[in-house]
Amino acid sequence: MSLSPPRCAVLLAILLVLVPVAPAGTASAAAPTAADEASDRAPPTQSVRTAQANVTVLNVTVVGRTAFGAAAEPMVNVTGTIANELDLGAARIRVDRTSDTVEVLANRSDAAILAALREADIDTEDVAVRRGVSNGTRDAVAAALRDRIAAAGLEANTSVAVAGDSRLRIRTTAPSTVLSAVTVRGDVAIVGGFPGSDAPRRVELVDADGLATVGAVQVRPGGAPYVPVTLTDAAARNFSSTLVDNGFTDEANTSSCRYDEAPTEPGYCLFTVVDGEVVYAASLSPGLADIMRDGEFVEDPRFVVTAANRSTARRLATTLRTGPLPAPVRVVNTTTATPTSPFETPGPGTASPTSSPTPTSATDGTPTADTGGDTATAADGTVAAGDDGTSDGTSDAGAPGFGVPAALAALLALTAGLVRRRQSP
Predict the structure, then answer these.
(1) Could you give phi then psi for residue 363, rounded to 5 degrees?
(2) For the whole model, what pTM was predicted?
(3) Which residue, 29, 200, 221, 230, has fewest beta-carbon neighbours within 10 Å?
(4) DSSP secondary-structure letter at 298?
């Protein structure tokens, strides 16, 4: 059966609508090759993003309070009095008479600070105590943390930046190591413990200021790891004379420390103390005792600081080299993000250096929470849906041949033409 020309045209238009067309911008499918089949078996490209090293952002606050309007008389021992009243070392108190401020670099209540100021003969009627430290103290803490990070060999993948008043931001790919360096203030001392008339006594023998050099961590065969140090002349004289005067070098008292078995009656011990906590206890060796009795130690004041394990010894060596932080710090929170570049945010139009290609993403300029220039990721390292700026839909703009809208338009135009043709004489 033959069809009239109008019916043929209508049928052709309907077929154009129903025949599938290629999406916009896609080429016609070719026969699969061996390479195509191999690529089908390869892992999806999303795994590239999860393989990147995550950066941990530590938001840190410098701990302390500042008393404003605390005018002190020049001749008064303000620092020592306040430190004693608050049970702190003198280094934790900073008095600035030019600005009439007193910084307490510790966590103490406002009431306790005001009471300590009154004990130092400071009129507290107009004094205001506020949380936080000066910008100078904050910057000094940042510099000290950078020194520690460099001493630990982490400066290539860790950065420290000021984030506001009393706040710092640390970005690193080695969070556990950096966290241990940050949370230790670093007051290291060698303390001598020995029997007293009523109770065991302790006396500080040397602190970080008494160290001339600090060596690399070493381990004795079958023994504990240690850090070799050389004392300054003044520290060597004090160290030697204190041990001799208090009986450490007596033959009966060498090798007599029993701190692990009897901590309340430890005997004659040399304690490695970090931030007030004993991390190791050891006896004075007979050989070192002989050198001290003969006065030879002052001429060659080499000594070792022992630790319980290698990781503690490494942290000990770092804090011995850099000294204590100017003020304690507290890690407020940590976040993890996948960086475009570990420690540099690329400028507009700059490609991010990566070890392997990653999917590019479009940016819409929408303000986001401050994450230090990182792209937030889920806990497993994958990008959340919709975060890459791509669209699941397809576009017909610029597509070759007929798309669905074009075919419908052709159908309507052809039908209208045929109607006019039939109606014409």
Answers:
(1) -115, 135
(2) 0.59
(3) 221
(4) T
As averages over each run of 10 residues, the pLDDT of the chain (425 residues) reads 50 43 42 42 37 80 96 82 92 91 95 96 94 95 92 89 94 88 85 91 91 91 89 94 95 93 92 89 92 92 88 86 89 79 42 33 33 33 31 38 49 48 47
In whole angstroms, what is the distance from residue 39 CA to residue 26 CA?
A: 19
- Residues 385 and 2: beta-carbon distance below 8 Å: no
User: Please, are residues 225 and 309 in contact by the beta-carbon 8 Å criterion?
Assistant: yes
258: Cβ contacts below 8 Å, ≥ 6 apart: 265, 266, 267
Which token pair is 76? 């008064």
CA gap 407, 425 in Å, rounded: 29
**How buried is 237 (Cβ within 10 angstroms: 0-12 exposed, 13-18 middle, 19+ buried)?**
middle
